[in-house]
Amino acid sequence: MTRSSHGNWDETSERIAARMDRIALVITDKIAIALTLDRAHLLIHKYINRSSQPDAGDVVVGFEDGSVILADRSGVKRTAMSLSSVLNPTETSAVLRWHEDLSHIQAEAKRCGALADAGTLVRQLLTEATNLSREKYEKFLRWKGIIAADAYKWVTLASMLLDYRRTLFKRMVRTREPGHNVVSKDYANLIAAMGALTGIACAGPDNDWLTEMALNFPWTTWSPSFVLLRERSVFSALQGATAASAFGERMSDFYLQRLTDASSPLLIFDAVVGLVALAGRSHLAEEISDALNMRMNTIMNREPDLAQSIGGILRSANMVLRSPEKARQIVAGWASLAEGSKTRRSRNEEDRVLRFLKRSGDAVRLIDGHYPSILSIPLYRHTSPEKFFLPSYASEMDIPSAKDREYALLRSCLLTFDEGGETLH
Questions:
Q1: What is the C-alpha to C-alpha distance for residues 21 and 2, in angstroms, rounded to an integer?
Q2: Co-location of 305 and 317 in the same domain
Q3: 259 and 181 share one domain
Q4: Out of 66, 78, 247, 413, which residue is the most buried by the measure of CB atoms under 10 Å away?
Q5: Residues 253, 121 share a domain
Q6: Average pLDDT over residues 332-346
């Protein structure tokens, strides 16, 4: 987020923003090296030929955090979070170590334009995320193996930054202070960037690190889904749900406990979203469903004033768990009704549904007695985060309006929600 028009930044916010900037530079440098290896084939020949392994067929570039790039004479073959993920014990490769052997690659990155291209790619994702096309995102996604951990660190810091600045930003928008338009625009972009980078971090296939990380996080204030769901948009809630599924079925016990301990409607909603996402990717689906229903019925008896919301949450969850295809059909129907007979209709159902979800607003808004943010969970998988982005021909049609941005900021992190809903039929 830009600092100039957002009032005086406190020392903590400055420190967090500086760490985010450093991570962005690390991501840029890694992608630049990967692009260089993909382009400068003669350089790869040179490293293979000078290797101490006479029959080396690959070059492995290892970074300080353990992530690696595997390349051969035709370019980059794959990236991964660890050397063991790309090499078998019997394979021989020319291994280049970060800060020891990469000076030539770094110099070549500048010469061939890879560093500039990487900088443009990262800048687009971080500063133009609300208008990011699927094609541009896929260029970034290609390097998930070397930037996954960095991406999640950036998202975590961005969430911390919002914790420190949210009250000020809301006040600026609510009272129409100078700079409030920039604040709401930057907020929308920051949330979009967090969603995009969460998708990178959770795309896998090396996701054991996510599980280990989650086991050490304070679940009283955090969950894999809540980082994005607390922003209260349908779209960010879905990205949060998809992320939760990447953390693995071991998270189900934590989400069930979170549901039992939930002290607000939004925390109840988050726990259910996480459980539904996990159930759809787990052989424990029936067990999770039974436990969820038992706890939700207890909550409904305990909180009669929330009967409509709790009933909608439980109805939506059960439809996804028992009839996911019916849930998909309902969401597709809503999308068609919302688009109507507009001259610029989406070319296919997938794009039409995605546009509907991006424009649906509050994640805890009931439609026809159900929550779109829950019914849509089966539509997306953590292994395909690019599905959250529209193709280039359609992406420019979905830049949020100033009014939508302001509403999104003002409702973010509200733990309660109105009893009510609307009808689309």
A1: 11
A2: yes
A3: no
A4: 247
A5: no
A6: 75
Domain count, the chain: 2
User: How many percent of the chain have pLDDT more than 70?
Assistant: 88
Specify the pairing of strand 68-72 against strand 75-80: antiparallel
pTM of the full structure: 0.92
List, in sequence order, the alpha helices (H) in 262-284: 265-279
The closest of 219, 271, 217 to 240, measured between CA atoms, is 271
State whether 241 and 307 are in the same domain: yes
Q: Are residues 211 and 200 in the same domain?
A: no
Segment among 100-114, 135-149, 150-164, 209-223 with least mean pLDDT: 100-114
Average pLDDT rounded to a whole number, residues 204-210:
91
Do residues 272 and 233 share a domain?
yes
* Residue among 318, 328, 316, 323 nearest 379 (CA): 328
Q: Are strands 93-97 and 366-367 parallel, antiparallel or unpaired?
A: unpaired
Same structural domain, 198 and 224: no
Full domain range(s) for residue 270: 207-422
pLDDT at 50 over 70: no
One domain for residues 52 and 154 = yes
SS3 of residue 280 by DSSP: coil
Residues whose CB is less than 8 angstroms from the CB of residue 387 and which lie 6 or more positions away in sequence, other chains included: 134, 350, 354, 379, 380, 381
Across 2-16, 104-118, 119-133, 244-258, least confident range: 2-16
Task: Quote the distance between the C-alpha of residue 140 and its chain's center.
Answer: 13
